[in-house]
């Protein structure tokens, strides 16, 4: 290990109660590596600016260190990792001010309920404001700048506190509505020794449902002629896909998912009515929403994209579940709000329904859903349209999907998904999931889908990892001619930019992309077995029409 000078500080070396410590003296860098190992972290994302002694200490404790050229890229990878795994993405930034490079990534993670644990260093907690490299005006500036996008922030100024504070930040990031958390550690602590406090084995908290409310939901749904379930991302966040399937089959209730929740209910199941609400829903989903006498919304904020600008129409008794009570009533006012972890709520609801019902209910709704399933028809066209790509991808099986939603990629939401392996954002504050998701997965079966802006923003990341990465990245390249327009109306539509950028040669040279402009050409390259990363530049006709979005 690289030699490093350590200094003793008498105010830090003697804890009040030694029996509460880990039992031995540690430097600050070791205390950090120790606690990350203790709380179960296996992978840490950071930049090449991380000090060699800290990198070696993390490796000493068996932590995988994922190094990028910038903290923004580390945040993108950690975000994709968290979406994919359900665990917190851990990012170490030295100095902490570098976290501001990726503030849009953090903001999107906050909006999308993605757990991140950001550990940033302060240049000093004693004598601040000396204009050190990477230092802002005051030590509060980083946390103040990120405050709107983090649910927890705390500063560590003693080695004793490193263990318990990092553990608390990790727990908070994963508790209830998962979101980013920030822990700041003064860099002086890496040169000092003390006895860190023992971890408390804190577990993420999950909000339990009110039993009377659950009983009311069970009564309504058990007596309904046609109950409908709208499943949001909260189903996946609480690992409740099995419970959703059990509830649907118990009640013979159709299930509609939001765009982001695709896969929480198998697309091939006879009760699956499709994804999207309002103007973006499938035909049968729109019909069922109007006919339903009770509607249960699970773990969703009912965002603009999935609801086509909140254009959904319904008449039934609305029950809305979300772990965050602030999101209930913002879009529609439910007759019955349910503030609880979606998984815990579903378990309690199923228990009560099983006591109430002697056997599973049978309705005629399955045949109605089956008869409505069809391939969407498009008018004749010569170039590739996004739905052509969607139809082709149905012939291939990928283990996980990472999608940057935009005008040329939105038709991909009609791609049938059988399990919770679909990762995307509906807030669309940052584009990078389609690239970073594949690059961090190390999975040859991973598929990333992005647009021209998404790939150009992340060319450097692809170049860094092209030799070792696996999987497929599809770039739906319309030359930047279209965009997702939310200005003309709340219902998103295809906007025309009036510009066209030809970057085929640049993508081929910088990322090794293969350019294709025909259905057969795309099929041919997808069929080729290649253990290395494939970047495919798919030329999309700028005058395409969408099966989801409205015409401009």
TrEMBL record:
Report the residue ranges that make up the Thiamine pyrophosphate enzyme central domain in this protein: 214-349
Family, per the entry?
Belongs to the TPP enzyme family.
Q: Which GO terms describe its cellular component?
A: acetolactate synthase complex
Q: What does this protein do?
A: Catalyzes the coenzyme A-dependent oxidative decarboxylation of different 2-oxoacids such as 2-oxoglutarate, pyruvate and 2-oxobutyrate to form their CoA derivatives.
Task: Please give the subunit comment from the record.
Answer: Heterodimer composed of an alpha and a beta subunit.
Which EC number(s) does the record attach to this protein?
Answer: 1.2.7.11
- Protein name, please? 2-oxoacid oxidoreductase (ferredoxin)
Species? Metallosphaera sedula (strain ATCC 51363 / DSM 5348 / JCM 9185 / NBRC 15509 / TH2)
A single MF term (Gene Ontology): 2-oxobutyrate synthase activity
Question: Entry's InterPro entries?
Answer: DHS-like_NAD/FAD-binding_dom, THDP-binding, Thiamin_PyroP_enz_cen_dom, Thiamin_PyroP_enz_TPP-bd_dom, TPP_enz
Pfam families reported in the protein's UniProt record: TPP_enzyme_M (PF00205), TPP_enzyme_N (PF02776)
Catalytic class of the enzyme: oxidoreductase
Q: Reaction(s) catalyzed by this protein?
A: a 2-oxocarboxylate + 2 oxidized [2Fe-2S]-[ferredoxin] + CoA = an acyl-CoA + 2 reduced [2Fe-2S]-[ferredoxin] + CO2 + H(+)
GO biological process annotations for this chain's record? isoleucine biosynthetic process; L-valine biosynthetic process
List, for all copies, the residue spans of the domain called Thiamine pyrophosphate enzyme N-terminal TPP-binding: 26-132
């Amino acid at each position: 290990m690289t030699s490093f000078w350590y200094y003793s500080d008498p105010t830090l070396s003697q804890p009040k109660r030694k029996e509460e410590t880990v039992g031995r003296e540690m430097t600050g860098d070791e205390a950090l590596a120790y606690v990350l190992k203790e709380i179960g972290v296996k992978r840490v994302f950071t930049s090449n600016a991380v000090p060699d002694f800290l990198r070696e200490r993390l490796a000493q404790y068996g932590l995988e260190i994922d190094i990028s050229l910038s903290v923004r890229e580390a945040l993108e990878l950690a975000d994709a990792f968290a979406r994919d795994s359900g665990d917190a993405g851990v990012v170490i930034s030295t100095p902490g001010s570098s976290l501001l490079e990726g503030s849009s990534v953090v903001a999107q993670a906050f909006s999308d309920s993605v757990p991140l644990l950001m550990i940033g260093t302060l240049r000093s907690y004693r004598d601040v404001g000396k204009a050190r490299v990477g230092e802002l005006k005051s030590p509060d500036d980083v946390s103040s700048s990120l405050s709107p996008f983090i649910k927890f922030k705390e500063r560590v100024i003693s080695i004793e506190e490193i263990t318990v504070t990092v553990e608390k930040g990790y727990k908070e990031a994963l508790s209830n509505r998962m979101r980013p958390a920030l822990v700041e550690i003064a860099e002086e602590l890496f040169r000092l020794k003390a006895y860190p406090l023992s971890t408390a084995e804190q577990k993420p908290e999950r909000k339990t449902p009110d039993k009377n409310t659950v009983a009311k939901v069970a009564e309504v749904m058990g007596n309904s002629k046609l109950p409908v379930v709208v499943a949001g991302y909260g189903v996946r966040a609480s690992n409740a896909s099995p419970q959703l399937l059990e509830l649907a089959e118990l009640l013979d209730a159709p299930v509609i998912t939001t765009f982001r929740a695709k896969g929480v209910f198998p697309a091939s199941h006879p009760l699956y009515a499709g994804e999207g609400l309002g103007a973006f829903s499938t035909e049968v989903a729109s019909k069922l929403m109007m006919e339903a006498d009770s509607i249960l919304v699970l773990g969703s904020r009912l965002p603009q994209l999935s609801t086509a600008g909140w254009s959904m129409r319904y008449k039934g008794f609305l029950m809305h579940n979300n772990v965050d009570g602030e999101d209930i009533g913002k879009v529609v006012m439910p007759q019955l709000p349910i503030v609880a972890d979606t998984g815990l709520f579903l378990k309690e609801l199923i228990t009560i329904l099983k006591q109430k019902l002697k056997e599973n209910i049978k309705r005629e709704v399955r045949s109605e859903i089956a008869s409505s399933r069809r391939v969407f028809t498009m008018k004749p066209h010569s170039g590739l349209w996004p739905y052509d790509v969607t139809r082709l991808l149905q012939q291939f099986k990928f283990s996980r999907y990472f999608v940057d939603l935009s005008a040329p990629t939105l038709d991909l939401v009609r791609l049938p998904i059988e399990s919770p392996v679909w990762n995307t954002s509906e807030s669309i504050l940052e584009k990078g999931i389609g690239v970073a998701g594949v690059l961090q997965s190390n999975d040859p079966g991973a598929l990333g889908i992005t647009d021209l802006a998404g790939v150009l923003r992340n060319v450097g990341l692809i170049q860094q990892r092209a030799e070792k990465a696996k999987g497929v990245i599809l770039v739906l390249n319309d030359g930047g001619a279209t965009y997702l327009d939310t200005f003309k109306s709340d219902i998103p539509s295809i906007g025309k930019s009036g510009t066209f950028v030809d970057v085929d040669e640049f993508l081929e040279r910088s990322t090794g992309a293969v350019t294709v402009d025909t259905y057969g050409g795309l099929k041919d390259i997808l069929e080729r077995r290649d253990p290395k990363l494939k970047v495919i530049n798919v030329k999309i006709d700028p005058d395409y029409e969408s099966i989801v979005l409205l015409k401009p």
